[in-house]
Design brief:
two-stranded antiparallel ribbon; peptidyl-tRNA hydrolase activity; Pept_tRNA_hydro_sf; 215 residues; 11 strands
Length: 215
């Protein structure tokens, strides 16, 4: 799901030794040309295109475990499973560089609060020259029942301020994939902001945990 292949020239070029696998295995390291070359097919080398995977949320312990921070949890899960260490600050985001299988990836968690997420995503995509179709956003979605996942190839912001900020900093472009996890709607007349910044109930947390573990 997180990769495409191209049988042509590498799509991207990066500063030397910027991309490299963090796993203690026989993974390849990525130098000037960011590509993981497989066996040749009919005499043509197959190369992977890198991804920028961004989880949306708010930084700080105050927001840990809240509904609005599900995007952070999803990125944390990928980081743990793929052993990609996130210990660098770049473009106001906590980032980690590694790979999923043979596909080079950059994981990011913007640290400028949800409404300013685009201030990280736009510069990171530009600096690493990641094509728009490979900028994957992970975030919470109130229009979906709690714990339900939805993958979209493109779309609007759906009144999600984090997504809105990202679109604004990608020059208004909306043609990037997004992976949403449902958090449901506020009960009764509960304020939306209060709902988003509230922690999950025990039942809701169990549902979300089961889904996040599938990543």
């Amino acid at each position: 799901m997180l990769y495409t292949v191209s049988i042509s020239k590498p799509c991207l070029a990066y500063p030397k030794s910027t991309w490299q696998s963090r796993k203690p295995s026989n993974r390849k390291s990525f130098g000037l040309k960011v590509s993981a070359t497989l066996a040749e097919l009919n005499g043509v080398k197959v190369e992977y295109t890198p991804w920028l995977i961004v989880g949306l949320g708010n930084p700080g312990n105050k927001y840990h475990g809240t509904r609005h921070n599900v995007g952070f949890e999803m990125v944390d899960r990928i980081s743990q499973e793929e052993r990609i260490v996130m210990n660098t600050i770049q473009s106001k985001a906590l980032v980690g560089i590694g790979s999923i299988g043979e596909v080079p990836v950059l994981l990011a968690k913007p640290q400028g609060y949800m409404n300013f997420s685009g201030e990280s995503v736009g510069p990171l995509a530009a600096y690493y020259q990641v094509p728009l179709r490979h900028v994957l956003l992970l975030y919470d979605e109130m229009s979906l029942p709690n714990g339900v996942l939805r993958l979209q190839p493109k779309g609007g912001h759906g009144y999600h301020n984090g997504v809105k900020s990202v679109i604004e900093h990608l020059d208004g472009r909306r043609e990037f994939p997004r992976f949403c996890i449902g958090i449901g709607n506020p009960p009764g007349t509960m304020d939306m902001k209060a709902f988003l910044l509230q922690k999950f109930s025990d039942v809701e947390r169990k549902e979300v945990k089961q889904i996040v573990q599938l990543l």
